[in-house]
Amino acid sequence: MGHYSDEQKSRLLGEIKLKNRILVEGLAFSSEIFKHLDVGGKYIEQVNVLFTHDRHAHGNVEFPACFLTPIGKYRVQIRWNIDSPLELKYEDGQYNIYDKNKLVIENVDFTRRSQYYGLKTSDGTSMRTVAADYGYGGMFVSYSNECSLKDKDLDCLFCNINATKKIYSKAQDIKWKTPQQVGETVAAGYKQGFDHVTISGGFIPERREVEYYIDVAEAIQESTGLTDFNGTACVGAPEDLSVFEKYKEAGFRTMATNLEIWNEKIFDVICPGKAQLCGGRKNWLNALDYEVQLFGKYKVRSTVVSGIEPKESLLEGIEYLISHGVVACVSQWYVNVGSPLEGHRTPTEEWHWDVFERTVAMYRKYGVTWEEIRNANANADTVPFDLFRLYEEIDINPEYVLSKTF
């Protein structure tokens, strides 16, 4: 397409590299710094519906969810790390970001709050606790903010879902979501321009999971009036693969079954619950193949965690998935508060950057499109997805929904 000059492309690439650095290192700042910002008013706040992305707990103190880079308007999560070499400062009425005392972003542009965040469902539940705004028209519903694997001591070692519930559920009034709450919240978001929703949560008994997802799909259809509501159901690998047909019949357009780790031996150690309770790694791969056959090529997503297993093993898994019609979502491992691996470090920014560039090359090699990426994923604002849009020269403002409503 060629509508970017070499200089523009270089500057945009530089912003994505800075985003990658910020996501690896986090941001250092005082927990009180945002008292000068209209968090939860003009600007969207963190709502920890499933995970927290900070390295430290901050209880009742509200943080903004993310900010936009100056030129490309790439969404960057706020990840609090008091030991980071990157520092967010409040100076002369504005927020600035420094990298080892060098100014890298002046007058930070925080993302605006979606209108439905200020609404309540018919039973009085705050819609902000039901569905999160993940940018690019995507809403994310976590029906459960806990995982039953904890009771069996089989948690995935990188995960902090249960710690997040302990820290934030009371402070932010986050509870189990009923189908009616989900339907009403999605309808409110869709009226404002959102057009994709992911339904996810922690492990619950398989039969109960299927029944719940069907009820949610019916509630969304009833509330929105849409038969095709562009929904993604994120579920574990079932013992009976034919149950996927029930998700399709219910109206979900895409599926997500997150393998997380490619190397079989590391998978067994890092994801013991997925290995022991879901038929092992082979059944996860069989489930993904079944989903692709049923829903279609690149209408299935599987997240892999970037930074735990060796790079070549990870890249082998990414190419396997993409070549088999699965949108591999490469999730950068950031060691969050409360996970069993808390205190460890993710690899360097250069390590992650190499993985992301090679992943984008695979997307392009196999002909994956932006719409396939966006519709299969809960959030389309990761570093590899930013890179993909840059290389494909696709201009989409992550706040395009808000541009319709403000």
Descriptive account of the structure:
The chain folds into two domains: 27-110, no CATH class; 116-405, TIM Barrel. Helices cover 38% and strands 15% of the residues. The model has no long low-confidence stretch (mean pLDDT 93). Strands 7-8-9-10-11-12-13 form a seven-stranded mixed sheet, sandwiched between helices. A three-stranded antiparallel sheet has the order 2-1-6, with helices on one face. It has helices at residues 6-25, 161-172, 179-191, 206-224, 244-250, 264-270, 272-277, 280-295, 311-323, 349-365, 370-376, 383-392, 400-405; strands at 66-68, 75-77, 86-91, 94-99, 102-105, 109-110, 131-133, 138-144, 196-201, 231-234, 254-256, 300-306, 327-332. It is built from 13 helices and 13 strands. It has 406 residues and is an alpha/beta fold. Strand 3 and strand 4 form a beta hairpin.
List the keywords.
406 residues, alpha/beta, TIM Barrel, 2 domains, 3-stranded antiparallel β-sheet, 13 helices, 13 strands
Fold blueprint:
Blueprint: H1 6-25, E1 66-68, E2 75-77, E3 86-91, E4 94-99, E5 102-105, E6 109-110, E7 131-133, E8 138-144, H2 161-172, H3 179-191, E9 196-201, H4 206-224, E10 231-234, H5 244-250, E11 254-256, H6 264-270, H7 272-277, H8 280-295, E12 300-306, H9 311-323, E13 327-332, H10 349-365, H11 370-376, H12 383-392, H13 400-405
Helix pairs in contact: 1-12, 3-4, 9-10, 10-12
